[in-house]
Model the fold of this input.
Amino acid sequence: MSTTVSTTSSTSPSGISFSGLGSGLDIQGIVTQLVNAEGAPQQQILTNRQTAFNTTLSALGQLKSSLSSIQTAVDAFQNLDTFRTRTATVSNSSILSASAIPGTALGTYQVEVDQLATAQKMASAGYASATSTVGSGTLNFTVGSGSFSVSVAATDTLTNIRDNINAATGNTGVQASIINVDNGSGGTVSKLVMTALNTGTSNGFTVTAVDSDGNNTDAVGLSALASNNLTQISAAQDSIIKIDGMQVTSASNSVSTAVTGLTLNLTQAQVGTSVAVTVGTDNSPITTALQTLVTNYNKYQSTNASLTSYDQTANQAGALLGDVTATGVNNALRSLMGQNYTTGSTTIQNLADIGIQVDKNGVMSLDTTKLNQALAADPNVVKTLLTDPTNGVSAKVDSVLNPYLQYNGVFDSRTASINSQLKTITTQQADLQARLNQYQTSLMAQFTAMDSYVAQMNQSMSFLSKLN
Done:
């Protein structure tokens, strides 16, 4: 009788592929199954815990983000301009337009534009071309309360003089240009045109010359560019308007000092024509702010519902079903949205009174008609309802959400706790793997010893069989 020695191979812990040389057993396969049987249940428990913690961590992050958007929306109410924004309408936009800053007094003004402000503009006599020379000396400019000078060489052309005026140190009020115009004989001449940069009589300018030819007043040489030898195209003049019959003079066509907060932009003078300018309340910022609250609140409710409900169709529970944090903050918020507030009014005491309602499913909506009615009736009470630092909606929402959202608050604490437990699981997984590796090594040693013994027995039996 003889015993057959198997030479099929498998893989050892060291990476060498073999099976029992003496026994013919798949030692590696047996060891692997034994190790898996030992470790799989424990590994599955750790994996399930890890997955559950990560799911909760993600859900808490979603909930915190949606709650933060609600807090951002109500904090926007604290911007006072939200309740003080103004509109400015005019009855004849071809004559003027108007704008008003937040807080401008409400009312209607009758405005008559008698004269527009203009900038002074003067032109020289015509020269053969822009490269013509004029003379030499110095041009002295007086602009408003300032002055500057331009030196002119005998070789300087009209173009050089233009450029030197524009680049002169201290020149903040005059712009020079060259215009080529018809000379009346079929050709053209070049004229130096000087224009005040700003309108109004206070921004007019004068030009005097120190002419190298010794005569500063004639029309020959550099003195040809002095004011007395220039043609005035337009005079420096102020705008003149009447507001409710009272005259206002301004150096500019943008009049912003007559009525505090109101700017009148004049475009056309029509003596005797009155334009009604009405400053009113602009409800769009508060409407937008409240609509943002509605949008963010509904997004939060949708997120909260998906995280805390049970889907019977999919047989799947939300990640925060029964969670104390999710339930507590939601109940507190819904209570705030329906309660009365101290406003000093008997007609505007809660969000429903200004058009905000929350239905039985937690969906919020805004009735802009009701909001506008409340703002028309008493905008200060609406402001108190939303922004009172102690009892307003914004303050109350902050008092509910701050403990959850602030640094080291509920969400931060729970996140830190979960991360700590995830770290512990990672350590437990590493420890388990180390134990399993040790267990595998031990099993391999035992099976290898057994296989060696079987091999020796096979050899002995083979030897004895030959003797027979």
